[in-house]
Amino acid sequence: LQGDPFSPTSQPAWFFASRSHAAALQTLLESHKAGQALAILLGEPGVGKTFLVHAALAHSDLQHFKMVHLWYPPCSFHDTLQMIGWEFGLDTVTSDPTQLAHALHRALLTEHERGRQIVLVIDEAHTIGVESLESLLRLSNVRALTGAPLLQILLVGLPTLWRHFSTPPLRPFKQQTVTCVTLAPFTYGESLAYIR
Question: How far is 125 from 132, CA to CA, in rounded Å?
Fold first, then answer.
């Protein structure tokens, strides 16, 4: 071996396209290229959800995309906004939610004017409370004058995340155009092919 295929660091060169992974990758690519504001990637622990996200965003078709990746997001919406601000490299990340929202909006507009689409990837999204998740998803409604979303959101989590979308606060988002992909584990044959 020339590297550790089980390293927690994603290396797109190690991507193995099982039938489920290839279909999920294609669906995510099409969703982002089509400008869908919300996509959801579900799967049990260890099936390669985060790895697949990195492979998708490293794809040549998405080179004009900029990824903001949040791991284990904090519980409150404001704390999550602050983390997004830090990831954007905002000079001042204020504790005032209104000022922070305006600063993020300006940063999103600037990136849009530069021709870059921002994708907010929230890993372990199933750990976020419904109220905070509702506030975060409202960010996907912010649009440029052209109608294109300034921010695309990709939620990554366990299958229980989809149940959140049956609650009254999140039901309207489920009724919008949402790409939801469930990643299956490797079959026995695919596991053998991966090892070889």
Answer: 11
